[in-house]
UniProtKB/TrEMBL annotation:
Protein name: 1,4-alpha-glucan branching enzyme GlgB
CDD domains per the UniProt record, alphabetical: AmyAc_Glg_BE, E_set_GBE_prok_N
Coiled-coil region: none
GO cellular component: cytosol
Annotated family: Belongs to the glycosyl hydrolase 13 family. GlgB subfamily.
EC number of the protein: 2.4.1.18
Matches recorded under InterPro entries: A-amylase/branching_C, Branching_enzy, GH, GH13_cat_dom, GlgB, GlgB_N, GlgB_N_E_set_prok, Glyco_hydro_13_N
Keyword Magnesium: no
Native organism: Mesorhizobium prunaredense
PANTHER family: 1,4-ALPHA-GLUCAN-BRANCHING ENZYME
Gene field: glgB
Keywords: Carbohydrate metabolism, Glycogen biosynthesis, Glycogen metabolism, Glycosyltransferase, Transferase
Length: 737
């Protein structure tokens, strides 16, 4: 490793540190402790200076154990100084003693820098794509010693110190070296290892000591309510998921089956005492359940560290640390690997839109608005009482882009669903006139956020083919899921919030009134292929008094279950990838709460079991029939068969794709069975009924078509006469043999 030159300290003619330097070191106010402490050349010899509170005597040794000199106490606070019998500069260990005993410590100020000029260059430029290897706390060997290298960005601070149980949380003892070109503070502290809680003590530009700050790049955190960062070994998991990753690297996800199970890790299941499952316990239970139910992906609501359970993880204070609620970071790596080995992808909710203002977090990090905008019209989010990242600052953009790359590289995640994109794109989001600042062109678009999202997507797709990004974006912003080089934001997919809103509105109506709201269903196909859509029935629809999906369905209990099954089959037959929030696959009756587990006992009841079986069979059909997934994002895979039968609330369309037989999707959204109903079909011959949500196995009335219908060419064209069961969706697959 690169060794620095010996530094000439401020000293008198006798080589001793000045009284002012000594007092400043003891008080913790010195602006450059490396100029005083450590090993320094004086009159062709070397002296050592150290600050060791509680010590009465200190002897210096080389790292090999050779005695190098006795140091004298210059200040009773613990400042020691003395000549060394060394011929070259090298790190030192000290043997400290007092009336109560003795101890050894290695001098952090006798070591050179770990970061180098290339790091400074790329960090300052904002183009460093491996910040997570440089910033934060890293266990390393450096100049013959083992310890932890700490580095943090705080350009406006007067002083930054590492504090922890290893120094009695005393900010005077491990003051860091500032790299002025970048505002990065760094320090190598020997003799500490993994599992040590730490924070940064920061003196702001006004000389005021801030609340202790957690590390923005912490890779592990304490379990809440504690808030310290924790030194951690890098993930040591031996991955066995190459087959899974190779498949997705070479796949076009728009043309693959993507059926996602959205999960809140803290409430899917709990121990009997209400405590969280660990990642290993979740792997043992959740992965087999997802495989059995037929989903292709698990999407976790945010699992990065956050202090407040009811925020569900969306107010994160540790973007680089899997939450301590579920065990150590390696446990999450084991979960992802286990999911991949079982053929299941893992998507994370990711929150670059805002961050909480907890005192230990990013807000006012170095005594200034560093990560956020200083002006609340740009830097404060009125909906969530949070701070908004300053996307115009290259270091902030770099922090966030690196975080996206970090999860893809270190934990092999298959995708990032980016939360609250609309709030990022519009400067006037949730703001009244006078509460926002127009962009440089006088508009409401947040051009800096647009640039950030484009860069993030370019870097993720450029460095990690096979990883997808998904935007939760609720407006008509153009080209969200089109490439950056074509003027898009660069996401792989966008949530179709219009589909969710319109269909739930439709199914909340009593069947007799649905004929007046026919357009709620048909309108979505006007724009269904304008983006690469995911159809979300997410957690947002089953909280805050909204009830559950079952509760939203109109009618009595039988009708609610029938309509929900028909709705799911309608959605699985509709163009777009699928997402369903946990518990809705078995028709959870109680609104979701993060404070309790799902009501798993409902699976013992036939009606609920029938909904689960419907979802399971739909997932199987969706995955096994190219017609249902391979042209989800292309208009060539969809054509209407019946679009205007509002009187009967019947809809029918055809799904098709190369390599598979076409599938007709037919829905009857009234409780009236339709006998001898004529459905136009593109080809004469046999059509097999591959699902009927009114089947008795699902809890329905058992009406159907005996498993098949025959399409015949007649004067009016090719058609089949079918029985449409009440409140049902059926699918017919062309099967001429």
């Amino acid at each position: 490793m690169r060794k620095p030159r010996a530094t000439a300290a401020t000293s008198g003619p006798d080589g001793l540190a000045s009284a002012g330097d000594v007092a400043a070191i003891v008080a913790g106010t010195h602006g450059d402790p490396f100029a005083v402490l450590g090993v320094h050349e004086v009159d062709k010899g070397f002296v050592a200076r150290c600050f060791v509170p509680h010590a009465e005597f200190v002897t210096a040794y080389t790292l090999t154990g050779k005695k190098a000199g006795e140091l004298s106490r210059r200040d009773e606070g613990g400042f020691f100084e003395g000549s060394l019998s060394l011929k070259k500069r090298q790190p030192l260990r000290y043997h400290a003693r007092n009336a109560g005993g003795d101890w050894w410590l290695t001098d952090p100020y006798s070591f050179g820098s770990v970061l180098g000029p290339l790091d400074d260059y790329y960090i300052a430029e904002g183009s460093h794509l491996r910040l997570f290897d440089k910033l934060g706390a890293h266990l390393i060997d450096h100049e013959g010693a083992s310890g932890v290298h700490f580095a943090v960005w705080a350009p406006n601070a007067r002083r930054v110190s590492v504090v922890g149980d290893f120094n009695e949380w005393d900010g005077r003892r491990h003051t860091m070296r500032v790299r002025r070109d970048t505002g990065i503070w760094e320090l190598f502290i020997p003799d500490i290892g993994a599992g040590r809680p730490y924070k940064y003590e920061i003196i702001g530009p006004d000389g005021v000591r801030l609340p202790l700050k957690a590390d923005p790049f912490a890779f592990k955190s304490e379990l809440r309510p504690a808030t310290a960062s924790v030194t951690a070994l890098p993930p040591a998991h031996q991955w066995g998921d190459e087959a899974h990753r190779n498949f997705w690297r070479n796949a076009d996800p728009r043309r693959e089956a993507v059926s996602t199970y959205e999960v809140h890790a803290g409430s899917w299941q709990l121990h009997d005492d209400g405590s969280f499952l660990s990642w290993d316990e979740l792997a043992d239970r959740l992965i087999p359940y997802v495989v059995d139910t037929g989903f292709t992906h698990i999407e976790f609501m945010p699992i990065s560290e956050h202090p407040y359970d009811p925020s569900w993880g969306y107010q994160t204070t540790g973007l680089y640390a899997p939450s301590a609620r579920f065990g150590d970071p390696d446990g999450f790596a084991r979960f992802v690997d286990g999911a991949h080995r079982a053929g299941i992808g893992v998507i994370l909710d990711w929150v670059p839109a805002h961050f909480p203002v907890d005192a230990h977090g990013l807000a006012n990090f170095d005594g200034t608005a560093l990560y956020e905008h200083a002006d609340p019209r740009k830097g404060f989010h009125p909906d969530w009482n949070t701070a908004i990242y300053n996307f115009g600052r290259r270091e902030v953009v770099s922090f966030l882009v690196n975080n996206a790359l970090f999860w893809a590289e270190k934990y092999h995640v298959d995708g990032l669903r980016v939360d609250a994109v609309a709030s990022m794109l519009y400067l006037d989001y949730s703001r009244k006139a006078g509460e926002w600042i127009p962009n440089e062109k006088g508009g409401r678009e947040n051009l800096e956020a647009v640039s950030f999202l484009q860069r993030m997507n370019k870097e993720v797709y450029g460095h990690h083919p096979g990883v997808m990004t998904i935007a939760e974006e609720s407006t008509s912003w153009p080209k969200v899921s089109q490439p950056v080089h074509e003027g898009g934001l660069g996401f792989g997919f966008k949530w179709n919030m219009g589909f969710m809103h319109d269909t739930l509105e439709y199914f909340s109506k009593e069947p007799i009134f649905r004929k007046h709201h026919h357009g709620d269903i048909t309108f979505g196909l006007v724009y269904a292929f304008s983006e690469n859509f995911v159809l979300p029935l997410s957690h947002d629809e089953v909280v805050h008094g909204k009830g559950t999906l079952l509760g939203k369905m109109a009618g009595d209990d039988w009708q609610k279950f029938a309509t929900l099954r028909a709705y799911y089959a309608f959605m699985w037959g509709y163009p777009g990838k699928k997402l369903l929030f946990m518990g809705q696959e078995f028709a959870q009756r109680r609104e979701w709460s993060e404070a309790r587990a799902l009501d798993w006992n409902l699976l013992d009841q036939p009606a609920h079991r029938g909904v689960w079986q419907t979802v399971r069979d739909l997932n199987y059909l969706y995955r096994s029939r190219p017609a249902l997934h391979a042209r989800d994002c292309e208009p060539e895979g969809f054509s209407w068969l019946i679009v205007d039968d509002s009187a009967n609330s019947v809809f029918a369309w055809l799904r098709s794709a190369p390599g598979g037989n076409p599938v007709a999707v037919i829905s009857n959204f009234t409780p009236v069975p339709r006998d001898d109903y004529r459905v136009p079909l593109p080809m004469a011959g046999g059509w097999r009924e591959i699902i009927n949500t009114d089947a008795s196995d699902y809890g329905g009335s058992g009406k159907g078509n005996g498993g098949a219908v025959e399409a015949r060419a007649e004067a009016g064209g090719i058609s089949a006469t079918v029985l449409l069961p009440p409140l049902s969706t059926i699918m017919l697959e062309f099967a001429p043999d």
